[in-house]
User: Fold these one by one.
Assistant:
Number 1:
Amino acid sequence: MGAFKPIEGHCQCGAVRYRVSEPADKVYHCHCSMCRRCHGTMFATYAVMPRKGFTILSGADNLSVFSSSATTHRKFCKTCGCQICIDVDTKPELIWYTPGTADGHPGHAKDRESHIYVESMTEWYDIHAKLPEHIEETTSPRRA
Ligand SMILES: [Zn+2]
Ligand SMILES: [Zn+2]
């Protein structure tokens, strides 16, 4: 991959906007029970990168913080509930942000992307399943 082109992201309602100016070192699909419950999803995806490359452009005062452990502080939009980033006290030089809210590629190398905390994965989720792909809901055509 060539030089990283900065990307921007925002929450669903648009109150919180951010810019990422450095590529992610790692991308994690985290199956831990805290991520599952904070996101309400089967797993949560985070890009990990140097904090100095992450800037909140607007809406910093619209972020709420929930500490899912003594050292893990999850920031989400007060209005729409969208998870934006995590501060981890033990690694203050890094930030974890949600690349699903960004408008571009986080810039990580594919071999730096992985599933973590897989022992906490819900028992019915099949990480290897090749499921049908539809363009919208299941009444829409399958993707070719
Ligand atoms: Zn929002
Ligand atoms: Zn997690």
Note: The CA atoms of residues 35 and 77 lie 16 Å apart.
Number 2:
Amino acid sequence: MTRREDLRSQTDYKSDPHTRLKHAFYRRYIACWMGKVLQGRWAKPGTIIDGFAGSGMYSDGLDGSAIMTAKLFREHICRPNFQPLTYVTNDLDPRRCEALDGRMKGLPLDDGIQHVPVGPKKFEDIVGEVRQKHAPRGKQALWIIDPYGLKQIPWSIVSETVTVPKNDAVITFMADEAHRYRTNPAMVSVMGSLYGDDSWKNVPDRLTTAQSKAALVKLYCDKLEALGCHTSSFDVDVARRYTRYSLIFATHHQAGLECWNSAKWSADPTSGRGASAATAFQPSLLEPDIQPLIDDFRKRIGVHDFTALVSRAQILGHTEPHVRTALDELFREGLVVRLSPATAPKNSPWPATCRIRIFEAGPDEGEDGGAS
Ligand SMILES: C[S@@+](CC[C@H](N)C(=O)[O-])C[C@H]1O[C@@H](n2cnc3c(N)ncnc32)[C@H](O)[C@@H]1O
């Protein structure tokens, strides 16, 4: 037994710094999800399913994901407008289920949130029933899938959680483990179960560790996209190793991406890629790297609504402010003009309602945009 396994054999165990980062990321995303899903004219009651919920608390006092989210609901600035939330929890460990139940009951009363404990069971054994009872077609649901390892998330089960529109998922994908398993003959069946097929065998052999992890994460996202989802990921680096795990996000709705992208650029203001506990959510001296977005816009010659450009940017993992910065840059290069409205304040030339023309760069227009 490793020391880590020994610790984890206790009901509550000590949190790692990266657990705090993961929770800060969850908080950011879930607060936004609640604000979008649970309030407004068309809002309906929603469900969060915390499939690997743990005990609700770490031995050093950090709230577990379920307690953190239940508190977040109660303390959310928009709480008075919220539709009810059903919070379904499960864990394989009966001691953790019991501890979590007690801790949920110990929170201040709030009629708007109903805790539904369904464990102790394997995640794969609760999905069908939970879907039927708490996340049927048409209900807005968020699945938090946060296992210790890859063996607990067979593709057949994960794919079932995200096939229905309005079901979003945040999946902890152990990229380190997938990278090691990929070349271990004893793990062929685990990898087959993780991806649901042999596609992972096509990841090229001679990649660096970082490239291999990135390829495995991308392949997983591609498979989710084949089910009709938008996806994105955020890498969690641990002990100077890039991408110990990735938080992989799947959603059917652009609004979901808006929340996710905002969380990832807050956590990593320079690249939106990933962070370690030491670097996350720190202000950066560097500007955000939006070059891929600028390059994408360069190819979109023609007339566009600003909102359509924002949609495109969200799919590429960017945010609305990035669109404005990209347009500023292309305007400086002489490649963009605002068609309407005819006038706009000097300090906000790209209002949300504007229409824009993007021009093709001439052959002689280099980096500085052919000044004459
Ligand atoms: C990474 S911890 C979860 C931490 C929790 N989500 C949080 O952020 O506070 C993983 C949990 O999954 C539970 N677990 C392990 N195998 C499982 C399975 N097959 N199904 C459901 N839970 C499982 C463990 O008991 C453990 O509490």
Note: The mean pLDDT is 93.
Number 3:
Amino acid sequence: MTDIIIVGGGLTGGTLACALAEKGLQVAVVDQVGPHSPTPTDGRSFALSRSSFHILSKLGIWETLDDVTPITKIHTSDGVLPQWVEFNEMDVTGGPLGYVVDSALLKAKILEKVFSFKNITLHAPQSVLRMERTDFHAFIETNGGETLKAPLCIAADGRFSHLRTEAQIPLIKWSYDQVAIVCHLTHTLPHNNQAFEHFLPWGPLAFVPRPGNESGLVWSVEKEKADVFLALSPEDFAAEIQAHFGDCLGQFTLSSKRWSYALSVCLPKRLIDTRLALVGDAAHTFHPVAGQGLNVGFRDVSVLADVLTEAFSLGLDLGASQVLKTYQKRRRGDIIAMTLLTDGMVRVFSNQSRVLARVRSVGFGVVKYVTPLRHMMIRHAMGMRGHAPFLWARERSTFQPTPKPISKNNPKGATHKKSV
Ligand SMILES: Cc1cc2nc3c(=O)[nH]c(=O)nc-3n(C[C@H](O)[C@H](O)[C@H](O)COP(=O)(O)OP(=O)(O)OC[C@H]3O[C@@H](n4cnc5c(N)ncnc54)[C@H](O)[C@@H]3O)c2cc1C
């Protein structure tokens, strides 16, 4: 018997476990991957928003991340029209536009934090065989022969969530005819902490800055094209990127292997069910065009931790439908908005239609010259709009970044996590 069972001890599940354990709840985490198996790198360089920064800082995870690259400028351009817009850190107060963190590093540090709590028990490597829910409890039976019991079970088990399927929650889903190719590239010119999003007709080509003269690439391309690009030699692949992106970062060299991810949308019709709540990719999967999946997942974590710790302090039943409904109500809008926004971006940009080209042309002009609109978009991407739960609201008021010393990759002395 425990207060909460979390199935999936990954990025969102692990973070949620820490947020709840910090408030004194007993948490059981089940994950199919053992904690001591080496964290496999999946190639992703996560662009994290201000809201994610606050959540991870509040839990003391941020300060343990030693390789974080601030983003001070985002250059977006159309692959067909001579149109571009820049989003600049000068447009917002209090620090950079976002940060880039390597996926394996983030996973390892979240796990390290999980281990620091005596009131978290990790059941791994074990996967869920069966979930049963009654009026009072949720039971999880694992393939390790254990049965866990709690008033609430949380599904943080990713985009193919087993628990969501068991609960028969209906899904709205569609897939894109696109695959994301992910890799790292070194370049002869410094990125100066700039991220680039180049909207080509068959899919966006995005670079985020990594330490040194290296950037993380996410290139969404049609499936057939992806097969061809993945089969190219490292030199030919780098030349292909060069041909599509140009030389503003100098000469490219492939510096990692290439990973590929099929892209789809999955939106559960409910975020809750009897004694069950969904978070992270189990609650929403969308196109990575805006680099927002994990940021939205961390906001689920923040709101759910907010709702559950309040219920816990009042001695309420943690799995009561009123508690779960509060969570769903607070998260629905952000999740639907981000799904529609990312889908709209893919449809408007990954397109050769002349009508849509005109729409894009007008859109770029409006965003470029209407400053309040640009600021609103930045604040939305940074997760700074809407309801701010306690997990990051309090942190925000004390957020006083000091400039980082000027370096080659940081010519403006951009804020760095060590200084906040
Ligand atoms: C190409 C690409 C680039 C992206 N870039 C960004 C970005 O820049 N910024 C951003 O915010 N987001 C980005 N995302 C989205 C981000 O990767 C996801 O939102 C995030 O990884 C979801 O984390 P999660 O913890 O919810 O799920 P996962 O990371 O999938 O974790 C699920 C966990 O559950 C465990 N599990 C699964 N099934 C079971 C089971 N049956 N029993 C026990 N355990 C189980 C797994 O072992 C795992 O530990 C990107 C996505 C893609 C595809």
Note: Residues 394-420 have pLDDT under 50 and may be disordered.
Number 4:
Amino acid sequence: MLKFDVAAARQQFPALALQDEGKSRIYLDNPAGTQVPQMVIDAMVDVLKSKNANLGGYFQTTRDAVTVVDNAHQAMADFYNAADPQEIIFGQNMTSLTLHFSRCLSKQFKAGDEIILSRMDHDANVGPWLQMAADVGMVVKWLDFDPDTYEFAEDALEKVLGNKTKLLAMGMASNCTGTVNDTAAFAKQAKAAGALVYLDAVQMAPHYSIDVQALHADFVVSSAYKWFGPHQGILWARKTLLQETFAYKVRAVADSDFGHKFETGTQSHEGMAGCAAAVDYLAHFGEGATRAEKLRSAWANLSAYEHGIALQLIEGLKKFKGLTIRGITSANAMHRRVPTVSFTVEGVQPDKIARHLAGDNIFVWSGHNYALEPINRMGLMDKGGVTRVGLAHYNTSDEVDALHSSLHKFLT
Ligand SMILES: Cc1ncc(COP(=O)(O)O)c(C=O)c1O
């Protein structure tokens, strides 16, 4: 296996070299959005400079734009290990894609049908489905997690799944607790009961490989700005399913256009080029005959590094009196989480901690971070939520030490 060289990776990100008033920026805000390597910036600039046109014409720029769009669909098919680039749908972001699909899917549901939503999810995979349920008159059931272990019990789905269940929507990894869910097992169960499965991979995709062939799901969606690309959402769904699913669209787009019928209007071609470049950036950390294989090997490599710095972060946080980590902490369970670590400190508002860290140029988020259900479930909504520290593969052990030192100044 290739050895991951964090210094070499960092050199590719112009933003990581920036300083403010002589202080280096320490980006621990990654679950809200990552920084971008030069090759992604270059790919986007190239489209805007020399390939800027709409699709379907006869002249040079329009032909180049078609290549950009086709390459981006192929890159995302490799990213998700999809069988066909026509199964890839680009959109503005995960939220917009989910609002769009919830609206399209609502056409096949009726009053009294049931959907299952997760108490661990970001509101982007809850709010759209709640609105769909209200519009159609569907019944909402909740997949609940254990607020002591931050995981779903194995039988959590059994308790709510029934013959009226039409859809299970759940996250692969939480933007709040950091838990990685066994979504393949839950999806298999839901499929066996005849339900559709919609998986939010937004927080999983920056840390582990996604393989739609192994997930048993119908829809998988993520956002490239969380994995070193531009602001762009990308959804995968099986071709046959896309064919059958109703699309809200303009008349000029044919029903037979699979994924394309869901890509409303003119897309961000520069965003697509950036996505493809981000996929290539990730693939260059891996080995294999194809880009899809390289991606899988790259993630094994990157995850191993991330587990090390995540454990360092957690062990350091554990030393603070009154601090509770709101997620999995066992040293041997780093593979059951992403390196997104939320915590609370008795008697200290989370936003005060985030503000203090900003003073040392350490970037973290505080509050509910749109994870309304998990924050409510943990009883933290009226306490200001959590402080959330989120690592990516470009973070270093020294940066984790700097966070601990800065917290030490403030909390002791
Ligand atoms: C788990 C999860 N799902 C969905 C979203 C929404 O993504 P987007 O900003 O692309 O709409 C986020 C954003 O933070 C998230 O963390």
Note: The chain has two domains: 6-37+293-411, 42-283.
